[in-house]
Queue: 4 jobs
Job 1
Amino acid sequence: MAATYEPIATQTLGSNTASVTFSSITGSYTDLILVSSISTTHTATTSLVIQFNGDTATNYSNTRLLGDGSSASSDRDTNVVSPRIALVGFSSSEFNPVITHFNNYSNATTYKTILSRGNNASAFVTAYSALWRSTSAINEIKVFTLAGNLRTGSTFTLYGIAAA
Amino acid sequence: MSLILGIMASSRLVATTAYESIATTTVGSGGVSSVTFSSIPSTYAHLQIRATVRGGFAGSLEQTKMRFNSNVISYSSHWLEGNGSAASAGNSWVDNEVFLRYSPGNGSTASVFGVYIMDILDYANTSKNKVTRTLMGFDANGSGYISLCSGHWNNTAAISSISLVPKDGSSWAQYSSFALYGIKGA
């Protein structure tokens, strides 16, 4: 059997940063997994969002499941320029683990579906499905927040999985 | 020195992880009625299935029926899901298979596929009933689901085969893909 699940790149923020980008992503894997530990400089919770290949048009959408400690809810965004993949907090000591899956990211036939799970132990837990309406292979992933910057100490590691 | 040069000369690092690809099926033109992973070795600690799926069903939604070892009794399922407007939970008891929730059917937006990522822990342990957990969903820009699913097979047999069958239709659509991975223990 072929061993897989390889780290492609890691970024650790040494200062507050507007966005993190993984570029020149090889197409030699089947799936990508982004493992992130994130906090923001915003003064309230905000959404972690994503873009691919520099596409800033309204080609994205997402569906969310949210639990806030007292109830569960669901909502969605359509025709947005950057789909949400997690709700994140702003503590300087409590970072939010977020794991995001990009299956079949390099195929040039289908739109790209993304699944993401985010956690904030103090306030909520989230799960998202998101869509990029493009058949292009993903070769660049940009991650940022809708408000504030990504806080220093946030980490992002991109892994690749290759199917047999 | 030679090790360093060897790594530098390689276009890709040699993986030494505990995560291994066991088998993959990609659906070709015309679709297939089911996907089965058989003769699964018992040498791993856990299994993971990573699938990208679309049903051939004319409707906009498709579900998945999953069976182990061709067994058709003693399954149950629970789920928590969101459809973009409300969250809900459900279950299915004493069934003939584990239910996985919604992926797009052929009536959904073209080129949209659902994804599921399923973990089957201790699949070869003959003292435990088998439990699965799955994160799955899709978004079609105005419709879609995100679901957390658990499945139970009330049987202590080691899992040696896994069948994935569309519940509402009769086929998986072209370009659907199903990959089985094994995760080693120490």
Job 2
Amino acid sequence: MGLDPLFLSRLQFAWVIAWHILLPAFTVGLASYVALLEGLNFFTDKPIYLRISTFWTRIFAIAFGMGVVSGVVMPFQFGTNWSRFSDATANVISPLLAYESLTAFSLEAGFLGVLLFGRHLVPRPAHFAAALLVAAGTLFSSFWILATNSWMQTPAGYKLVDGRFFPVDWLAVIFNPSFPYRLLHTVNGFFVTTGFAVMGVAAYLVHRGRHAEEGRAMLTMTLGLLTVLVPLQIFLGDLHGLNTLEYQPAKLAAIEAHWNAESHAPLALFALPDQDKETNHAVLEVPELGSLILTHSVDGVVPGLKQFPKADRAPVAVVFFSFRIMVGLGLLMLALVALAWLLRLRGRLFTSQWFLKLLFFAGPIGFVAVIAGWVTTEVGRQPWTVYGLLRTAQSVTPSLTGPQVLVSLLGYMLVYLVIYPVGVWMMCKAVLKGPGDIQSPVAGGRPAGPVVAPPQGSNQGSKPAEGAP
Amino acid sequence: MNIVPLWTLILALGVFFYVVLDGFDLGIGMLYGLAKSRDERTLMMNSIAPIWDGNETWLVLGGTGLFAAFPLAFAIILPAVYFPVLVMLLALIFRGCAFEFRFRDREHRGFWDHAFAYGSGLATFAQGVVLGAFIQGFPVRGRQFVGGAFDCISLFSIFTGIALMCGYCLLGACWLILKGEGALQARARRQARAALAATAAAVAVVSLWTPFIDADIARRWFSWPNIAFLAPVPLATAAVVLLLWRAAARNTVRPFFYAVALFTLSYLGIAISLFPMIVPHRFSLYDAASSPQTQIFLGLGTLFLLPVIIVYTGWSYWVFRGKVRADTGYH
């Protein structure tokens, strides 16, 4: 069996971006949370906010550092493995990526140093401003990256000359049909992901009993946030689905494993899609519900895959299941929030040990949902890189050989499988340690002596002898 | 409207900022492997901890800038240097993570110390190989690279790889003269002189070697009257080397700026050799340029944003000015 550079390049891109997306999924939300805590600290002067903020800033630093180095990899992938895609689309999408570097990446990196290390070196308003600017940077970043991604899904504002895309209308390029929905759904999803991660940590601290005060404060804050954002996310997802129905019907048909276009379409809860035989096995479905959900009317026609040539269909089973995982987790999140309120109204939220444990184990739920959603939208875009216009097979670098890409893929696998477990373990250790005791903040200028010194070998914080070799 | 010259300038500036800024922190990464004690390593790392990711931003700015302004060059050069780019990215991942992990993962501190030093060295070497391969040029058909994955590895590109390691060590040592005190500074002075000797020799060798691999470059430098106009470049380089040699022993701030001047002159030398080609022998800056609408759309924003970035980057350096201390590092 020969090694196919196209397949291996796709695998490599999926590998590096899947790991990378987990970090923005966390840091976009966390940057805003830290900025909020810094704001509360700045305006109320309550030390608890400073303690919580410092606690999360430590974790943020690890995630952000990993986000930077795994993010640097991404633009180079376009050049090394997808040079024909780059040549064909550069005139249209390259400014969007460059604007991401200029408005977001630089902003985050420029002020991160001050946020992490400068609390005692700059005046307090400047430190708060740095927190706000880092948070703004993460949002700008999402804006440009998702604009680029959306243009590949629903291209607009271009003209095609000799197989290459040229810009005609920049506003149409940026605000292409799927962009507003994708932006809101994704960024809100990132906030929800962070919300559940923070809630899981908070539940752990409350359950453990040490640093419980901070835990309760975090839990209350995130529950309030998620009460709004989880239902909002389901609403935004529905809007995004309607948009996909309009602009990418073949993708929607694949997501639903729907072979024949029909009205009064059922909703398949479970099925084993058979791409060759163009049918489903072991189907469990609810009549009428498909049309109702997807078109908001039982008379609405749901597109079928047979309307589209076989060569233009996405891998049905992958997107069928990834979509159901995402939606299932969304409903589970809604149930968790509802349950939390039920307990809270009875005054038992902080004392129900089983529920705190449940919340702890639900901490990573958003990450799984983000990956599932990303698989749905990106695999659903296949077999195209620019939907309906440029095939993935025509996008890959022509000079690549199979063994060459295999080596690079193995390199990325090896390095990521070292870095990510260590990074996650570092974050877990920071959580185990809990929010430390912080000395009173210096209002500005330079401290007289070492304040948060990392002397070699010694343990800081409230917990002696932990982790000492 | 023709803004190709403007983009040439912006990109040249971006790459230069990257080389100088990430150059000194990669250099410190390499010297880190030679440090004598853990305290010293901590100080060295703290001297760049707040600014390294800002420095690395310029790599992404350079990459996306090339993609945006001269996409044809981006689509040809990157596949041609597939493995050096891979090695650079993987090495940068390791050394970038080492900043946080070294401090937190005490049980494996030795591993992360090595990751930081070797990662910095490998990333630098890979960048030097890319530079050498770029000067040599690539086989191209139509709008695509058609050579093999290892064409970029040659005696010349390996030499430029080593040369860049010397150069970055020089920048790093000069940064430590600026930020360090006592024994740390004293050793940095010796290291700066050693790195300077190696760098000056490497620059001389590359300068003499390049005309041999490319007749156009030889004509450009050695034909009359060019030789008269261009002679100041090597002469100024020699002068800067002498000034830096003296300053490295006694001054604090000057060595770093002389080192930057040395890089500026070397950079200028390469630019003189290759201009106006962005894919040497094949495509000029004009051939490889993106559509005018693309360049203008991005150019407008860049002219506004680039100065802003430079200002707040400068502010961040200002905040962490002065000698490095243990308390300006990890929390």
Job 3
Amino acid sequence: MSILIGSDTRVLVQGATGTQARFDIHYCLEYGTRIVAGVTPGRGGEVVEGVPVFNTVAGAVAATGANASVVYVPARAVKDAVLEAVEGGIQVLACLAENVPRHDAAAAVAAARAAGARLLGFNTNGVVSPVERCKLGGIGGDRAHDLYAPGRIGVCSRSGGMSAEICWTLSRAGLGASTCVSMGGDPIVGMRMLEILEMFEADPATDACVIFGEPGGTHEIEVAGALRAGRLKKPIVALIVGLFQESYPPGVSFGHFAAVIKGENDTASAKRRLLAAAGARVAASLEEIPDLLPRG
Amino acid sequence: MKLLEDHAKAWLRSRGLPLPDGRAAGSAAAAAAAARELGGRVAVKALVAAGRRGKAGAVKLVHDADAAAAAAGAILGMELAGQRTERVYVEQAIDIAAELYVSFGFGRFAPQLVVSRRGGVEIEAVARGEILSADIDPLSGLSSWRAAALWERAGVDSRLLPPLASLTARLYDAFQAADALMLEINPLAVTRDGSLSLVGAMLEVDDCALFRHPEWQAPGVADAGSKVLSEREQAVLEADRKFAGGAIRYTELEGDIGLFVSGGGAGLLQHDLVVAAGGRPANHSDLSPASIDKPAALFDAIFANPRVRGVLVGMNYLQLLPCTLVIEALLVSLRRNGVDPRRLPIVLRAFGPKENEARALAATVPGLRYMPHGATLGEAVREIVAAVKAGGT
């Protein structure tokens, strides 16, 4: 079992003929993901890494039964790509572009949520379920099997790169992930961190969760609230970075566009305090994460 | 970025929204001429995107052209929020009967409308119960009847509701058309004859959508902010715009360890680790490369910083790109800047696709310290901190 994706996931790739898409499709197929179609308007009939390319999502879905999409189009084309996918009946989307114009992001997210589709990103590198051998997007690169060992830990990260470091740390400690979600680093993303943790809460294959957080925004604060209210019961280990940012004036962007401190409550140390007070186990370093997880 | 008041108001005016007439002026004489053209009482305001201009004495209400010249003379050259005032905005003063507040911004997912009957003061000073907000569905936009419902709950007089609701809906359209992150009208003035006027207008537009608004990329449109960019920061900004695909960001700091760190979160973590290990970063950086041009430009900036005494090339386990891309960019920049890694310690931590090829490439340059496969981010950080300490004594 896993969340968001599984062995019945049939993936289409929007923007399949681009360089990054080709790179990722190659390793996704090697990993075992069932990529059934690509979509690039005007390039229907071509073949990428053995995958047939269609002109439209509707055409690809009709021919292949695709139910998930990885969206590789550039930021300025993201809104239309998501709207097309949602209209075509796609249920799970990973949207890789970063710095998507805010109004486009809001419209795309609204369309996905209205249709009950799950949208990861913007600025995600995907989602991987090591148990089901399925991944959307570049997550794991050429060594998804090494970095993401199968196990019973649910991982949710605001950073795609850190999802790899966390899961690699788990693997080396003899632990593994049920599903690892890179939720996206843009200011508006399709799913809140809390919504992803609620899915892990309901997933019988997940015993505990690891979250990776940053300054800025309220994702971690919402998680702390749900923990305190008893709505999340599985143990949560939290790694929240960006302490150094507190020595600089508010409003300075150092990394992800969403990681900008606006007030007193969205700093890394405030989030660590809130999560710890709510019952999460706050890790001081990557290496400490395995020690804080329950052993099964 | 925040647009300066004259550009923000010109944009709103171009959409047919009601605003007091106004002109920008760069001298006392120009301010006097503007006041004569406008006629009657005028407000003279500093053209900088600083808040609380009134409190700082940078907004003056005057009755004639001579007084406008004097006011402009006093305001021009003023230092506000770290910026020197170069121009003033001369605007027709209107007879205000009531002041309202309306703004548009973003909530967790959707655009948000905020209104209050208490305009004319900073919104932070208004009691929470008197501020109302509603999410807007970005797909259907804001209807005038939903705006009317919110204003009614805010306690606005019934007779004012129809024009106010229609204006609010048109403001939302302007907010969206401008690709704005924030549009704040404070005060939204109700004049003695019952008409509405956007007296205070702040427009912050989305840097990520500037490709749709080339007119706002010209100098003098946006608030420059109080931060003066270093030559190297400016160069990175220009390279980021010039080369297609990916992104680079570079912020210079006071320390001596150059950070070439990637992947948002991993960069923040490594920066924390450097500080915890007793090192002082010379900069923060972030990159998502598409070709070697942008990473090479980022390396150039780091090597050009005279404070740098060691460099950490710390990548999270690469998933989206080959390690060779980073090393190729490094080698190009080393050559371009005449940097010798035997004298300037450079620690590399880059694992992932094409790692063996990257190692072979790095081995062609003596002195590069490529961490063994499996080394943690923390180990690479401790290596560079120790190397810089050893080199500095």
Job 4
Amino acid sequence: MSTIIAAAAEVDTGDTAWMLVATALVLLMTPALGLFYAGLVRSKNTLNTFMMCIGAIAVAAVTWALVGYSLAFDGDAKIIGGLGHAFLSGVGFEPREGTTIPHLVFFAFQGTFCIITTALVSGAVVERMRFGPFLIFAALWSVLVYAVMAHWAFGGGWLAAQGTLDFAGGVPVEMGSGFSALAAALVVGARKDYGRQALLPHNAMYVLIGAGLLWFGWFGFNGGSGFTTGDSSVLAFTNTLLTPACTLLTWFVLDLARNRQITAIGAATAIIVGCVGITPAGGFVSPIWAMALGVIVAFPCYAVVAWRPRTRVDETLDVLAAHGVAGLTGIVLIGLFAQKDWNGVADGLFYGDAGQLWSQLVAAVASPVYAFGMTFVLLKVLGALMPLRGSDHQEAIGMDIIHHGEEAYASGEGAILIRADAPSDGAAPVPERV
Amino acid sequence: VKLVIGIVRPDKVNDVLEALYRAEVRGFSLSRVQGHGGELDRVETYRGMRVKMGLSEKARFEIAVSDEFVQPTIDALCDGGQTGEVGDGKIFVVPLERVIRIRSGETDDSAVTPVGS
């Protein structure tokens, strides 16, 4: 009996129920990221910054359904998947191979990963990149960078084949976004006032609320990456609680040592760093090692956050530090902390398998190189076809008014209603008194 | 003693502050105001509602200076505040009847001269 069940996997209702919830949790992370990012920019760019995340949902969900999912998850070719699932062909109610959930749910869950990753990259170019070119960039990036790296790590590509462990996306999501962000910041260039004026976060409350909601969503992100309600999901879920808490405490100590004060925006950053650190390792390391990971990951990320503003690189919202460096650290630490007693898959160096560390190091070198290189070329080509940013004058007025014709904090004072039948240039008379 | 009032774009405030610092004008007040100076109206859309924004955000500097500092102050405001586009703002210079420093009771020129200069 048991062999028959194993051979023809059926949809498991419990697993499916959890994965439906997990998918919704991960989608929530993108508006949460919008809130986090919007709080970190100046008030005149609030809406534009949030809209880049909303735009990523619109664009990446569509590219994912058309070709992205297929390139990531069709077949196990080394570099890139096939087009067998393009336009969602063959994606239905039958369980996805190797899982007990409907293929459609698997597709949707992975789609929300593509969306948040695309949104993450926007953090490097906020307050200056034009909205139209950003949407085009997002569409191309979600296929050329995300889908390819997702295939390497999740879809049976060469990294997975040579033994790299990546539970929930250290390769495609975290290193993919972080090192792409660095390339994007270099190609698009710094904001006009960068390094000359203090460009401060306009609402620290948004940053904290956004970080809190991201953490909440991350339970679906990591807890769902086992695709079941089984051991690895439970382990990743619990580690998602423990690691960021340890990162927070470590960040507090580092803040105290550096400035004698514990900062709120630093705390929000620490939550992200901790969640990112445990993302690749969630289902592979014991809770105690997950806590150690939370402490360790704070150090390189804190250093990069402190160092980056002294450079001329305006990687505005520190995607490289919070995602690239934290993801890389998590990927490498799997090679030390992984424990077969907990994950049933592989041991790390501390449990006798030095080979696992090597597999992790390969991913830690290849992922940044591909993400950085591909994004650099993509934006260079795009920049040759259209201007990526507006004039200094437009940048001074702010992206909200220039690109969206709205303000985040419109007072309504002095606003005159334009009659519905007025021509669109706004030159028509205002309503007459009656 | 004159009061120089400069209305400038909010995004040029830092440039004006730098220019004032270079001109050694150290005492001033800054407030956020809304106003209209004949520039083109901006149309914004909120769902189905289109509105013409008649008032723009501006920053208002108030700087009380002795007579020989009037021109350097005006130069600094122009220098820092100018973009060349409509909407750069205005400068008003008005005479002041009396100035009193609250701490010491000093009046007029000595009241508007910063301590230590």
